[in-house]
UniProtKB/TrEMBL annotation, chains A, B:
Alphabetized UniProt keyword annotations: Ligase
GO molecular function, one term: ligase activity
InterPro entries: AMP-dep_synth/lig_dom, ANL_N_sf
Name listed for the protein in its UniProt record: AMP-dependent synthetase/ligase domain-containing protein
AMP-dependent synthetase/ligase domain boundaries: 21-341
Entry similarity comment: Belongs to the ATP-dependent AMP-binding enzyme family.
Amino acid sequence: MDILAICEANNVPLTPITFLKRASECYPNRTSIIYKQTHFTWPQTYDRCCRLAAALLSLNITRNDIVSILSPNVPAMYEMHFAIPMTGAILNPINTRLDAKTIAIILRHAQPKILFVDHEFAPLTQEVLHLLPFDDSKPKPLIIFINDMDSTTKHSSKELDYEGLIRRGDPTPSLSTSMFCVRNEHDPISLNYTSGTTADPKGVVISHRGAYLSALSTIMNWEMKLSPVYLWTLPMFHANGWSHTWAVAALGGTNVCLRNVTAPEIYKNISSYGVTHMSCVPTVLKFLLEGDRNDRSHRSRPVHVLTGGSSPPAALLKKVEQLGFQVLHGYGLTETSGPVYL
Amino acid sequence: MDILAICEANNVPLTPITFLKRASECYPNRTSIIYKQTHFTWPQTYDRCCRLAAALLSLNITRNDIVSILSPNVPAMYEMHFAIPMTGAILNPINTRLDAKTIAIILRHAQPKILFVDHEFAPLTQEVLHLLPFDDSKPKPLIIFINDMDSTTKHSSKELDYEGLIRRGDPTPSLSTSMFCVRNEHDPISLNYTSGTTADPKGVVISHRGAYLSALSTIMNWEMKLSPVYLWTLPMFHANGWSHTWAVAALGGTNVCLRNVTAPEIYKNISSYGVTHMSCVPTVLKFLLEGDRNDRSHRSRPVHVLTGGSSPPAALLKKVEQLGFQVLHGYGLTETSGPVYL
């Protein structure tokens, strides 16, 4: 079933959340997400997103509400790129490398109803919350912690956490269907802030239509084939992972999630799962040279790397390509809604 | 420059005619069209389409007018997929294999202001026109003949022909710019008729938005890379060549045009121009078995073949694949606006 043709036939608004439902139907046996011991298929990811969206609706999340996230590239971060906009709300992924003061500026401006926090950033969040004066006009967001699914040390176990929310979500069939019907394709899907290098972070609003087209633009210009295996070396908080969050779903690919980006982790995942694509800043390209120097010429498929930000030196590119990586250099700003290819 | 991002940024309507301008800027040295001795680059194709559109405007063609075409896969047929909608008019490519009576039914229904006729179909057109009662309420369309550029025998040399129209077109810069600004992406770009196997042909209206999305759908699902070399074995009058007319422009590819589809012509063009993609009905797959049996395993790239219509027998597919063709089977109807991939 081809969602592009169907969108047009029914004049359905363009939104990348339709990629999720399509992936669950067209690629029912493909692995959607891998993270440590956790492996999901596309139907499981679809089910989890529907449950989370239903739970958010039960928490009175509604159209154009902001839901902020402080998280590394774990499955929850990926799922929320679909589940939050499925409710009509706007996701706001926050750069976890910012200091407490800058994050406080973002929260004061975005005024989220809910803030999802990965357990790793619980101390940072405490620091941020102390900086913010909450009152009736600017109420404190509901904090929901994300614990690793196979972690033994649970944070805030007495409170509602991410997995608890998914368990309690009850998506009726009609609710699940309506969640894929965005009212207007120009509605916001994501609120992304610039890094604040020149001034306070500035908010950039991405529309459902913009996200959809940006995902297709990447597929076309990076020449991505169906069912890629995508290693998450680029933070999803960077302009929604340059829209690759949604592009991987459009292609029925596999998301290999990484909490920490290190050379051994990158090489282990490439070898274990047959990674075909990854994106990163030039700094991560340098990591690749530090890693193993094993011959990977036997690999039937090269690893395609999309890099952006500062221009990597020619010598670095040459060395990385000798290791079996095919590097494409893109250009982008948070404001340009995904990378632009020249 | 990425047209997808730009369309969104400026909230420009989605239309595949923007692919042409982008190709002329992003792929200035790539060959756009090959036909016999004629070779054009993308800037040349862009210039010719702007000239033709300007000439059509000077003939009082305006928004939502119908311009019909009876033509094989020659450069004019390709160019008119851009030049006609650039004026706001709607192209109506007619199946040249229909009999005069059926074509007359289409013309009576579509009521074109202009009918472009390739010289090969001049006798058929005479037959069709004799069947039609024209009067003030249903005026006879202006007939414009298309002669092969390198042909020595010109038809209707005293009258205005296609190349004469291009020569007389005067696209001012502001006119050329405005021709890429479709007012509403839901406006029709093409009026295609079904083949009339079950009843009189039925008209199907394709919108600019639908054509744009259908082109991108093909790129994604057929896994087309940038700069393909596309051999036109599928008639462009079949649902705008399953939207591949526009997809090839989006990718800055090369259109290898064919007046007659025969095995020697197919193999000659594959060998001369390094064809990467072609589309056809299963009958043409049979032609491939009749052609040369030379070993093509030395080819660095296989020829990707998209086939549709009736299902080709497994034995035929196997034999064709042994010849170095990679076959994908799609499904489509004129009504579905390009093929659908399952």
